[in-house]
Backbone:
């Protein structure tokens, strides 16, 4: 299945951003923005990549705008609590949301109903990369590439870690099973830390997760990276081939399944959207944020409003289809 355009996905959000300029004078004058502190609601707990990127970019924008930006963590229900808060906020550029793919894509399958509409209630301002999520095998598994791993998994019982239901790791397991006719068991954890601990102990034979979280396992030699997703190799692991290079054709290994992003309520003035978007992209090239990206093993900085909207419009439905195939019972 190729990556295809699907009309309708995010048309409401993208259209709202485009049409907002018509009503901008009634909401906020772009030349007067910002005239007071800005709130950035982070829909996940403090600590970790999501919170770190939100705070680093907010600090950069605050310095450029001359106004405080207050970061508030409103975690819970896979990002739903924070997203609902922002969706119901005034579209004046003073309340923004920093969240991840799960909130606007996976939650549409994981939950029966959502108190917000990902297609209509937000404008997509700027996206920050979640980077590659390497596929790692335990040292006891005699495989250095996907072909060898598939041969081993056909002959052995394989338990593969997933850091949450509906996550990229969950999708990767299901798509490998589907393409190669395997019966690997997905073992779901509440976060990466316990997953990596079990891999190190040999309780599971493989897993996918962030480079930083798995660094100790890789450095100790307990785990070995045999493939990375996306269509380009990872700078920190230049000798490791991508899934695509190794003949794994599922779009799950080509699309961005782990991005972070800055969103606002639909209806924000386009000039304000563009200003924030430009600052996010600019901030992504700053020494401090480049240092954070390097620590987390992320190769790319932020992309702006137009590119972010395009990515979610084109790749969101692909992710959604893959998540639907997981057979998750909605909560």
Residues:
């Amino acid at each position: 299945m190729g990556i295809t355009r699907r009309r309708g996905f995010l048309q409401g959000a993208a259209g709202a951003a485009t049409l907002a300029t018509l009503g901008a004078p009634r909401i906020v004058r772009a030349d007067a923005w910002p005239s007071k502190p800005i709130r950035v609601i982070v829909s996940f707990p403090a600590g970790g990549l999501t919170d770190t990127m939100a705070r680093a970019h907010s600090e950069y924008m605050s310095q450029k705008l001359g106004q405080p930006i207050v970061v508030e963590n409103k975690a819970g229900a896979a990002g739903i609590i924070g997203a609902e808060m922002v969706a119901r906020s005034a579209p004046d550029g003073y309340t923004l949301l920093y969240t991840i793919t799960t909130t606007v894509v996976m939650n549409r399958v994981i939950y029966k109903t959502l108190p917000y509409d990902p297609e209509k209630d937000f404008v997509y301002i700027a996206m920050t990369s979640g980077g590659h999520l390497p596929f790692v095998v335990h040292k006891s598994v005699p495989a250095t590439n996907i072909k060898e791993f598939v041969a081993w998994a056909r002959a052995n019982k394989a338990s593969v870690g997933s850091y949450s239901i509906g996550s990229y790791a969950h999708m990767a397991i299901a798509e490998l099973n589907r393409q190669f006719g395997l019966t690997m068991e997905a073992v779901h954890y509440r976060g990466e830390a316990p997953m990596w601990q079990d891999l190190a102990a040999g309780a599971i034979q493989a897993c996918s997760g962030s480079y930083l979280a798995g660094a100790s396992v890789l450095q100790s030699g307990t785990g070995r990276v045999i493939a990375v997703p996306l269509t380009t190799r990872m700078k920190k692991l230049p000798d490791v081939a991508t899934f695509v290079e190794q003949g794994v054709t599922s779009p799950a290994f080509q699309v961005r399944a782990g991005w972070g992003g800055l969103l606002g309520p639909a209806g924000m003035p386009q000039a304000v959207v563009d200003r924030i978007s430009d600052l996010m992209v600019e901030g992504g090239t700053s020494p401090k944020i480049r240092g954070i990206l390097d620590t987390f093993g992320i190769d790319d900085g932020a992309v702006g409003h137009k590119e972010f909207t395009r990515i979610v419009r084109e790749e969101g439905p692909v992710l959604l289809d893959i998540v639907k195939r997981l057979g998750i019972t909605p909560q």
Notes: The two ends are 28 Å apart (CA to CA). The mean pLDDT is 90. The beta strands are 38-42, 69-73, 95-100, 122-128, 135-138, 159-162, 185-188, 206-208, 223-227, 260-265. The first helix runs from residue 11 to 27.
